[in-house]
Every structure is written in C-alpha cells, then in structure tokens.
Design goal:
Length: 555
C-alpha cells in the first residue's frame, strides 16, 4: 500500500512593509498615495493662489486633510462636539472651518521682535489664542485660510515660519532653552540646530517620510530636551580625546506603543552632527515601514534591527566612515525645566516663566516682549515644558521683571504643582480628543495648591503631572510621575463622564534627575475629571510619606 502524504502548503509570502529600499516606492495605503501624488510642500502655492482667495469651500479635501499639515495647518474641532463616539461623524461634521496653526521655533529661540509678531498675529487673526506647546512651538487657533498668506508674510519678515510644523516630515528641532548662555553647558547646540534647519528643513527630499520625525539637541548637563522620546537626539558629552561633542540616541517615541530611545554608543562631533542627522533621517525615509501607519515610526525599525545594525547601516550606507565609540553622558543632577531665576555665564540672568498649562494669549506675548525690552533683553526661549524664558536680564532688573511678569500671569516662582503641570490641546480644539485638558488642569492645579499648600515643601523633589485628552501622548503621559490619559468613564450613577486612566511612575532624565522610565498603567484606576484634585492629593501625600525611604511614584 502506498502512503499518501499531504503536500506542504507553500509558505505565504510576507506582506511588504513598504520599505522603499526593499519593497520599492509603490504606495501601499491612502496616506502614501497622497504623498506620492504631490509633495506636501507644494500645497503652499495653492493656498496662496487659490484657497486664500476663494475660501474654505474651495479647498481640495486631499489638501485639507493631508498636505495642509506640511505648513503647520490642521482643521480644528467643531465647537460643541462631545468626546467619545466621534468615529460615526464625517470629517465635515467633526471639523471646523478654522485652523490651528503651529509656528515652528527651532531650538525655541525667539527675539522680542519675533515674539511681538506672534502676539500681534494672535490678536488680529487668532481671537487672541496662543498656547506654548511641549515641543517649543507656539500654537494659534481660529485661523481663517484667507488670512494665511498675510500671516506667513508677517512671520517670514522676522525669520519665523510654519514650514513642516506638522506632517510626515522632520518636525521642529528641540534645543536646549539655555543654549549658549548657561554657565555649566558642555557644548552650545545652536550651530548644529541652525545647520540642520538650514540644510534640510523644507527640502522636498526629506518631506515624504513614513511619519513624523522628531529631533532634540542639547549640550546642557540637565539634558533638558526630553531626548528619550525623540527619533534622534544628540546629547552633550565629553570624549576623553576628542573633547566636547554629542552622544547619539535614536528611536524614541510615545503614543500607543511607547518606547524610550536608545544610545548607539557613538560619539559625534559638532561638525559631523548635521551629516549624522541626515543619515538617520535618510534611514527612516528609505527603510522605515510605510504599509501600516501605526508601525511607521523609527522606533519599530529600531526594535527589529537593534542598535548595532542601526549604527552599521548609518556608517556603511550613509556616512561612509565609522563613528568612534563615545562615553555615556553623566546623569543629570538638576531639573531641566529652567524654572525661576538663574545666573548666566556673562553675569546676567535668565528667568524661566510658567504659564498655567502653557496657555497664554497674543496680548500676553506682546506684553512679555515689551516687558523684556523694558528690562534690557531682546531674547527669549520656549521650552519643552510649556514654559518661556527671558534671557539677559541684568541683576538689578530681576526683581522688577519677576513682579511685572506675575501681573501677566507668568510666574517665575510657581507652586510645585503649577510648575509640574502640562496639558495637551484637548477637546477645545483637537479633533481626536475625548476630554478637556487645559481648563481641567488649570482648575485642578488651583485646587491642588489649596489642598496641599503646606505640603509641597515636604516633597523631596519636583514631580510631573501630565494630562492628555486621548490615548495619543502629545503631553507625554507615560513619562510623568502622574499621567492622566483622557477617556470616558462610567461614574457611580452609571453616567458616562469625562475622566482619565492613570499612569504612575514615569520619568525622563532631564526632569527627574535620574533614569528614564515609562510609567505604568494602574489597572482599573480611572479618575473622573472633577475628582482629579482629590486623587492628586492622595497620591502626593502617600508619596511624600514614603519618599524618605527612596520609593518612586510607582511603588
Ligand atoms: Fe489631541 Fe490626543 Fe494629542 Fe491631546 S493627546 S492633542 S487630545 S491627539
């Protein structure tokens, strides 16, 4: 009897990942088709020549929901649409006929003249709205497309722009807010930031990436640019033979699959830094996964390749030379938010100001520009902690500056809780939001300040409170001591109300003076928005009771 065997099924071919160098450039989804059909940067001409003249209804939907982002423009959420089941709404029902506009501020560096122009644009064209974002941008709202060319003209007249402030592009370059002025700086990152911006930003060859690409550069020992959550970061360090330069990190990112960046173990000189940046962004462009948008960040490629291969491909295919091994930068010993008054290396002072949850207004920004000039300063910096710093204040001007800034709602000596709180855009303007964030946080901080007025001095260190309006992580919820992720929850009466999933125990080196860690979700722990102050009070009291024994927030 002959035995019959079932023939082995041929292996199903793996689906292509959409890596250009391996699978070719054929688009595998509608986003990739949109980008292949026309580079996002090209929409500027249509905005100037057609849409701004013929109004909102003339905008091609593919431009409106795609390419507008390449110039920092997103439609904002229609007013009054509740959080939650927005998936059933069409984009037209969910979105307003107005835009949010992000002004790109590489390294956070602003002159008073530039700040005044942003303030005036806000007052004239944005209903006096302005938010300091946690990526050193300023975000305006209520922008009408008919005003966009005039806004660009005013920004560009003072050297500002909105180029690639959003979209699948190299986003704003985070830079140390005290670059070039700090007494203990290891290396001034300003030349590297300026050169990357000059060579690569707004260039079509880097304007079709798999998704966004985030950069951070600092030479400050506090590592003040949240480097662990960027696609590429250059962190100041000193090589025993080559002197001051940078330690190279890649592959950080938050959102649904948070991952901290990793060191490639390579030392990068100031001269090499722009080329290394070009190499990493090129790897992302050429090898990054494009088929599935939720796997299209560099962190997924790093997870599959590992650091050794990433470094090898960088050196072999893009640089053409080997980078030397580099030393691990020292752990920060101070918080990197630059709050308060600090002496600069030239004997003047810089003053870090907190606006509650980053919320300011055009009027406030214009007044701050006037105030800085009246105290002899023409330079400011935004920070990745939603703060703004005035530089170059003479010692005898500090007291008056601090007092007058306070009358504008900008506090040099905020309570620990106000200093710690950052919030994303939330339901007020963001189409993805489920709950309110800014007002919730501002309100909660005021209550927490009251409840814990005699307690904050007992905390052994700063803490961070971050509020997100949805499962995305624009306000870095997983990296906070106490993070709140917006969602609808069911209260005791069985009603759906705004609330938050709690994350505890996250940390970044530049804010927490220690090892970076991602916070963990406390299973089942959800807090209604109006219970947030009570919850923070409980956590802080428990923490300060146990912190003497060195326990973390997550313990
Ligand atoms: Fe919008 Fe969500 Fe980002 Fe907040 S975290 S700005 S709600 S996408």
């Amino acid at each position: 009897m002959t035995q019959t065997t079932t023939p082995a099924r041929p292996k199903r071919a793996a689906k292509p990942n959409g890596q250009w160098k391996i699978d070719g450039p054929a688009p595998l989804n509608t986003n990739e088709e949109m980008k292949a059909a026309d580079n996002g940067l090209n929409v500027r001409q249509r905005i100037e020549e057609i849409y701004s003249k013929q109004g909102f209804d003339s905008i091609d939907p593919e431009d409106l929901h795609g390419r507008f982002r390449w110039w920092g423009l997103y439609t904002q959420r229609a007013q009054g649409i509740p959080g939650g089941k927005t998936a059933t709404l069409s984009p037209e029902e969910l979105e307003d006929r107005y835009f949010m506009l992000r002004v790109r501020i590489d390294g956070g560096a602003l002159s008073t003249q530039q700040l005044r122009v942003i303030g005036e644009i806000s007052t004239e064209f944005a209903r006096d709205t302005a938010d300091l974002t946690d990526r050193q941008n300023v975000q305006l709202h209520w922008i009408d497309v008919v005003d966009v060319p005039e806004i660009w003209q005013r920004l560009e007249a003072v050297g500002l722009h909105t180029t690639e402030a959003c979209g699948d592009v190299p986003r704003v370059i985070l830079g140390s807010p005290v670059a070039g002025i700090s007494k203990d700086e290891i290396i001034d990152p300003s030349p590297v930031i300026a050169e990357i911006s000059r060579r690569y930003i707004g260039k079509p060859e880097f304007a079709n990436l798999p998704r966004k690409f985030k950069t951070a550069v600092t030479g400050h020992p506090s590592q003040d640019v949240v480097h662990e959550i960027n696609d590429i970061a250059l962190i100041g360090t000193v090589h025993p033979e080559l002197g001051a330069g940078y330690d190279l990190w890649v592959g950080g990112g938050l959102s649904a699959n948070p991952r901290l960046g990793e060191r490639l173990g390579a030392f990068v000189t100031e001269e090499q830094a722009p080329d290394v940046w070009e190499g990493i962004v090129s790897i992302f462009r050429d090898y990054g996964y494009r088929r599935l948008r939720n796997r299209a960040r560099l962190k997924f490629l790093l997870a599959d390749w590992g650091t050794e291969k990433m470094r090898q491909v960088l050196q072999d295919e893009y640089l053409g030379y080997e980078l030397p091994d580099g030393p691990l930068p020292d752990q920060p010993t101070e918080a990197g938010d630059h709050s308060g008054v600090h002496e600069q290396k030239d004997g003047n002072f810089y003053i870090g100001l907190t606006a509650p949850a980053g919320r300011v207004s055009g009027t406030t920004l214009t007044a701050l520009a006037d105030l800085a000039e009246a105290h002899g300063s023409t330079r400011l910096r935004t920070t990745p902690h939603q703060k703004i710093i005035a530089l170059d204040i003479a010692e005898d001007q500090v007291k008056d500056f601090v007092g007058t800034a306070r009358t504008l709602g900008l506090e040099a000596y905020p309570s620990l809780f106000k200093r710690s709180a950052i919030a994303c855009t939330g339901i007020e303007f963001c189409k993805l939001a489920i709950v309110d964030t800014k007002d919730t946080m501002i309100d909660a901080v005021a209550k927490i300040e009251e409840r814990l007025a005699d307690h904050e001095g007992k905390l052994p260190r700063q803490l961070s409170l971050h509020v997100n309006g949805c499962p995305n992580s624009c306000a870095r919820v997983q990296t906070a001591d106490v993070g709140f992720k917006g969602q609808l929850i069911t209260n005791e009466q069985g009603e759906q109300v705004s609330g938050f999933q709690v994350h505890l125990g996250g940390a970044l080196a530049g804010f927490e003076n220690g090892e970076a860690t991602l916070g963990r979700t406390v299973r089942g722990l959800k807090v209604a928005a109006d219970e947030l102050p009570e919850y923070v009070e409980r956590v802080v009291k428990n923490y300060s009771a146990s912190a003497a024994e060195g326990e973390s927030f997550a313990a």
